[in-house]
Amino acid sequence: MSAKYIFVTGGVVSSLGKGLAAASIGCLLEARGIKINIMKFDPYLNVDPGTMSPFQHGEVFVTDDGAETDLDLGHYERFTHAKLTRDNNLTTGRIYEQIITKERRGDYLGKTVQVIPHVTNEIKNAMRRVAADCEVALVEIGGTVGDIESLPFLEAIRQMRQELGRENTCFVHMTLVPWIAAAQELKTKPTQHSVKEMLSIGIQPDILLCRSDRAVPREMRSKIAAFCNVEEAAVVIARDVPSIYEVPLNLAEQHVDTLALKYLRLETKPADLSKWQDIVYRAYNPTDEVSIGIVGKYVEYEDSYKSLKEALVHGALAHNLKLRVTWIEAEGLETRDEDGKRNKAYESQLAGFDGILVPGGFGKRGIEGMLNAIRYAREQKVPYFGICLGMQTACIEYARNVCGLKDANSGEFDPATPHRIIYKLRELTGVEEMGGTMRLGAWACVLEPDSLAHKAYGSTEISERHRHRYEFNREYEAVLTGGGLRLTGTTPDATYVEIVEIPGHPFFLGCQFHPEFKSKPLEPHPLFKDFIGASYKNGGERVREKGSAENIVVG
């Protein structure tokens, strides 16, 4: 039997949370024992998000097969068990690239290539590929109805209903019910106009997810149902919640999964949401809190580090702690030594955190600030976790301030440095193109026994996802290990260094890969779990030391 489809679209404004809604519906269907897969179409012309600015697009999520994808795929993986690949995220650019390649090759036999049927057929074929091995495929259409670039995707899903029938397709449309402060009332007109726009292109939504920051009265839901031609039970209020992990429970309370299954003519067992209920209970009933300072270069836009923030939340939930994150702009920590004396003006910005983390990034902006933060964490025995760029800068800091290589740097930041601790991946020498030219996807790693990493994973062989152009230069291995740095993770062929640690430190670990991509609320990543544990322990010891010092002064 072929798969059935749930199509998730959006209207009124972007950023309503279609990705979270799609992921949550997938979570509810899985809880009922249904095998699902989930994908997203992005209407922009970029081939993939790999070369897009983090300030515009947010983070780039990487799958095991090395695809650079939209951040919503991170939500899909965190909320479901779907195995995502490059087939699960397609952009207009990727689709047009495929069509033009076929046209140049002569596959269309000289026919005129048009949006209908060629573009829409390519879109439908992409959906069928993802749905080949599941019972229900969820398909999210990026953007909002009314956007010119979204039209081919909406036309494609309209055609899918025509081809498969109403019992095999379900349309979920997300809209906004705004609160107008001047009038002191909620307004349904934006939702009505959004549904009218959908109807104008031949799509009748089955379920409406109405985003609101407050409760919506029943009479207003009845009004929406009447004007939008859906049953009242299908007008679902998606209220703002403090924890995104409450979203599946909120949708379940309003029977979204039951409705979707009714429209798809599917019968299943009741959903078991006990694990999600436990996660939400712990999120709202922590025993204590832990404070983490994240020193990055894209901190003005939190979506740039979406998976990272969620992985820290997962680590905190594993210890029943509330996470307090402070975003620190790396450039704000850049202070220079004067007359041979060390300038410590940045230390006041770093004092008081239980742990410090430096995430990934590209380019030289803010690097000196990151090096100051790493030096502070190393010398003050504050737990430190460096990811990708955070590992590379940790090696540079160690080379400069412990091993005496004052001009140590990365070839990315200073091509003329005499001590190139970090240099370009050997296979990328001479490659100048930006898109898709990095070391991407899942790679195996072998861990040293009795290392922090080995204790966290409980294994000596792991697989993690990568996204980088530069690597540790093993010509400096003897110098840095002689100075006390420990290389505790390498590729099986010993070509690449994957993890570095400082023995004797409460927690100092840098990894070349991105562990945040594999963390889930129900399965927190071991490195984040141990980093949060060490940070919380450090915070407790700091409080005790401060209390002892105050008692001494008073005495």
From TrEMBL:
Q: Name one GO cellular component term.
A: cytosol
Q: Which amino acid positions bind ATP, per UniProt? A: S15, L16, G17, K18, G19, L20, D72, R239, D240, V241
Query: Which reactions fall under this protein's catalytic activity?
Result: UTP + NH4(+) + ATP = CTP + ADP + phosphate + 2 H(+); L-glutamine + H2O = L-glutamate + NH4(+); UTP + L-glutamine + ATP + H2O = CTP + L-glutamate + ADP + phosphate + 2 H(+)
Q: Where is this region: Amidoligase domain?
A: 1-266
Quote the EC number: 6.3.4.2
Q: Which residues form a coiled coil?
A: none
Q: What class of enzyme is it?
A: ligase
What keywords sit in the KW lines?
ATP-binding, Glutamine amidotransferase, Ligase, Magnesium, Metal-binding, Nucleotide-binding, Pyrimidine biosynthesis
Q: Give start and end of each Glutamine amidotransferase domain.
A: 303-532
What InterPro entries does the database record attribute to this sequence?
Class_I_gatase-like, CTP_synthase, CTP_synthase_N, GATASE, GATase1_CTP_Synthase, P-loop_NTPase
**What residues does L-glutamine bind to?**
G361, L389, G390, M391, Q392, E412, R469
Gene Ontology terms describing biological process? 'de novo' CTP biosynthetic process; pyrimidine nucleobase biosynthetic process
Q: What else is known?
A: CTPSs have evolved a hybrid strategy for distinguishing between UTP and CTP. The overlapping regions of the product feedback inhibitory and substrate sites recognize a common feature in both compounds, the triphosphate moiety. To differentiate isosteric substrate and product pyrimidine rings, an additional pocket far from the expected kinase/ligase catalytic site, specifically recognizes the cytosine and ribose portions of the product inhibitor.
Partners and quaternary state?
Answer: Homotetramer.
Q: Briefly, what is this protein's role?
A: Catalyzes the ATP-dependent amination of UTP to CTP with either L-glutamine or ammonia as the source of nitrogen. Regulates intracellular CTP levels through interactions with the four ribonucleotide triphosphates.
Q: Which family does it belong to?
A: Belongs to the CTP synthase family.
Under which name does UniProt file this protein? CTP synthase
